[in-house]
Amino acid sequence: MKKIIFLLFISTICFSQNEVDSLSYYFKSGKYDKAIKFGEKKLNNSKDENIEHLLLLNNLGKVYSHVEKFDLALKCFREEQTILIKNVGETNINVAYNFKEIGNIYGLQDKYDVAENNLIKALNIFSKVSGVNSKEYIECLSKLAYNYHKLRNNTEAEKLFLESIKLYYNNFNNPLDKSVGL
């Protein structure tokens, strides 16, 4: 009996992952309409606040963003953010990535002031969770520098961009490591 329950549990997990993987497959294949249709259908059938639901929200948000359906992308990312914060708190790397995604979308819409707020939140979380020497922090810092450039705050943009280059160089520019480079 225990073996049957275990097999059912494993098959459910595998099936759920295949569902999310199918959305990713359509996206990576450039079949954005199919990805959206598939993702929306699965999302409507997945109202639980479980990992599958979060992955669907995240992946569908990325597809919407890619096809410039920014309002729908933001809706997905905000719902994901609400669930994440409720379940893991604000100081979590997934929450930081979520703020960064939202900031990126606002940047794509030329709403740099709103993008700035989200990127700063992401940066603060990355600094606490991953540290200021992490790639996540450095990439977010660079994104924030670009955002300041678009806001015509070139003094701050230059300062942050130079800081991101310095951090990257000091942490990831090992001449013996051929896998990383500028």
Q: What does this protein look like?
A:
The chain has helices at residues 2-28, 32-44, 51-66, 70-88, 93-108, 112-129, 135-150, 154-172. It is 79% helix and 0% strand. By secondary structure, it is mostly helical.
Brief digest:
The chain has 182 residues and is mainly α. The chain is 79% helix and 0% strand.
- Report how far the terminal alpha carbons are from each other: 56 Å
Radius of gyration: 19 Å
Strand content: under 5%
For the biggest sheet, the summary is: none
Bulk shape: globular
- Please write the string of helix (H) and strand (E) elements: HHHHHHHH
What's the mean pLDDT score? 86
Write the layout of secondary structure elements.
Elements: H1 2-28, H2 32-44, H3 51-66, H4 70-88, H5 93-108, H6 112-129, H7 135-150, H8 154-172
Helix pairs in contact: 1-2, 1-3, 2-3, 3-4, 4-5, 5-6, 5-7, 6-7, 7-8
Features:
single chain, mainly alpha, 8 helices, 182 residues
